[in-house]
Amino acid sequence: MKMNHHYGELKASYLFVDIAHKVAAYQEAHPEKEIIRLGIGDVTQPLAKCVVTAMQDAAAEMGTKEGFHGYGPEQGYPFLKQAIQGYYAGRGTQLAEDEIFISDGAKSDLANVLGLFDVDNTVLVPDPVYPTYVDDNVTDGRKIIYGRTSQENGFLGMPDDSVKADIIYICSPNNPTGAAYTREQLKAWVDYAKKNNAVILYDAAYECFITDPALARSIFEVEGARECAIEICSFSKIAGFTGTRCGYTIVPHELEREGMNLNKLWLRRQTTKFNGVPYVVQRAAAAVFTESGMAEIQANLDYYRQNARVIADALDECGVWYCGGKNSPYIWLRCPGGMKSWEFFDWLLENCGVVGTPGVGFGECGEGYFRLTAFGDAEKTKVAAQRIKAAIQTL
Amino acid sequence: MKMNHHYGELKASYLFVDIAHKVAAYQEAHPEKEIIRLGIGDVTQPLAKCVVTAMQDAAAEMGTKEGFHGYGPEQGYPFLKQAIQGYYAGRGTQLAEDEIFISDGAKSDLANVLGLFDVDNTVLVPDPVYPTYVDDNVTDGRKIIYGRTSQENGFLGMPDDSVKADIIYICSPNNPTGAAYTREQLKAWVDYAKKNNAVILYDAAYECFITDPALARSIFEVEGARECAIEICSFSKIAGFTGTRCGYTIVPHELEREGMNLNKLWLRRQTTKFNGVPYVVQRAAAAVFTESGMAEIQANLDYYRQNARVIADALDECGVWYCGGKNSPYIWLRCPGGMKSWEFFDWLLENCGVVGTPGVGFGECGEGYFRLTAFGDAEKTKVAAQRIKAAIQTL
């Protein structure tokens, strides 16, 4: 028996464990202080009413002989795939129904899609970014190179012709930086991918926060993307499904490599190794795209957007550089006073009672930066923003 | 870009497609005939009332700020893991809570667990069996050997010391044969696995059909199994969750290979590449283990058991050899008159208007055998059994 020793190469991540320890120690030393958490990447607003009703109705159906649903299509029910088709068509992107695969969330598909590719490929991962992209490839044994980003390029890396990569991760709007690509910038990535015969894995989990019409909400808004990209998306942020688990992956018919059609391969993978998303969850997800669903969802998104604005305004007033916050729930700020990420974490906790996430936890290029999120309670976010402004102004 | 060419080595499975074509052609030629389907492996009884209620209540919770659940533990909520602990303890098997990992079903975990093992391992798969075990390993490129079974050994293969395997699949009660191992038989497998440093992947999806106290419902009823086995189980058959998607995998603390602890590895795999099962589904699954839940579930299981009995009685009356049917929803019969599997399929459709599944579709050793299932409607199953008996008696 030979184990997969690549698991031994994973770096243990203590980021959120270390944060929890520091916060607990601080709270113990200062039991009177109210700590406000702006570090969380999880949503907090409840599911929309029409989503709850759709789920309850579907559960009732499942309790009747006539309405019972057993095994469904592994790639999702037509009613949900058609609703997603409509969501994309509404912004001018045409997809075929069988290019859409319903999943239990972006995290699963981001890992599982790698099974279509040989381990002998080079993977380009932006720095800083969601750490799972790296771990998913370390466990498979792929070579990873990093696309370094910085304040100078607005934390939006652009292709470098001297670098050869086979699999390219793009997360736009990015977690943690909130930076989002324009269609023109993405076009450069599409051209690079086509020239290098690479495949782009495009993580669009935060597309719903985009309001600026110059920014792409899907890579398929870019010409040529259908020949080189897979898009992975989720209901987690648009509809608060982090605990309800539904997402979707788009694999265009045109995407072929080494004579293999990736849409057919992914269908084969999913029908072999997955058994679909709960019927009740698919019904709930479809309700998101109804008229009342979209209205309720937008009200939730506006709640988070307002939080982002409150934080961004406070940083503007103290002249702190940041990106994100406008088309993203994340505000990525340069630590004031030249502080390093963890220094600022301690300073912010000590001086404001506010918890955020040290940027260096998302990659080396995050050192000296810090992530705040808009997913908190509105009132608490206002208090936090005022405390941050007051404290930074004393620096 | 190099693709995973092992996908090209998968054999296309036309089994259920071919069956559908044959049935459609027959129905078209004989529009007046009522066709009864005893080929399905999917449940048909609705979810239990208390399961539906638990799901609806959980959905209502998710619609409130206080009751909302975002990201949950990837390995499942304690309330469900504790309920499963109680289910096992009730039959004398003690498990630690953190040995239980909640999944979206056995199919996902059966595929994903292979990621813990190197591709350079030899896999022993029984023949006949659920075809996915083979496909999961073909796509990874592992060497597969088959454990041939036959009527002589009751379709229950026993270890052969001249065969060297690293990963051993056991499905008990087996799909498609319905044959189930006693604890003594499993002990031989555990001894073999320990001697060969192998790991057993034990698929217990049909354990709920076992009533004979000599048969094992979990491999962990067998001494030594904690050092060599992973058990994969599901709510699909016990509670009709084929469209609701929940299962669990048990990885004991004692299981170590090459200095790696498989419980810790699986935790790392799941926290990296999976984001848990919907909160509402976990609440629904927990309701299965309440007093009223177990009562409702048993009524459903008894419905299927009665169907199995009706079919088995008919076969007994015509002297047809079969196994399964008593501790399994599957009846695996020897095709009468020396017919081959597909011959009997055509004969059964033509003479009885009954659809089943040719045994050869589950492996070479299934040739000459045939699977009928107990998941159909009770009245239709009775009619089918009468037709089968009458037709076989004319042979």
Automatic annotation (TrEMBL), chains A, B:
Oligomeric and partner information: Homodimer.
Pfam families: Aminotran_1_2
Catalytic activity line of the entry: (2S,6S)-2,6-diaminopimelate + 2-oxoglutarate = (S)-2,3,4,5-tetrahydrodipicolinate + L-glutamate + H2O + H(+)
Function: Involved in the synthesis of meso-diaminopimelate (m-DAP or DL-DAP), required for both lysine and peptidoglycan biosynthesis. Catalyzes the direct conversion of tetrahydrodipicolinate to LL-diaminopimelate.
Residue positions where N6-(pyridoxal phosphate)lysine is found in the record: 237
The entry's keywords: Aminotransferase, Pyridoxal phosphate, Transferase
Protein name per its UniProtKB record: LL-diaminopimelate aminotransferase
Superkingdom classification of source: Bacteria
Gene: dapL
An MF annotation (GO) of this entry: L,L-diaminopimelate aminotransferase activity
Source organism of the structure: Faecalibacterium hominis
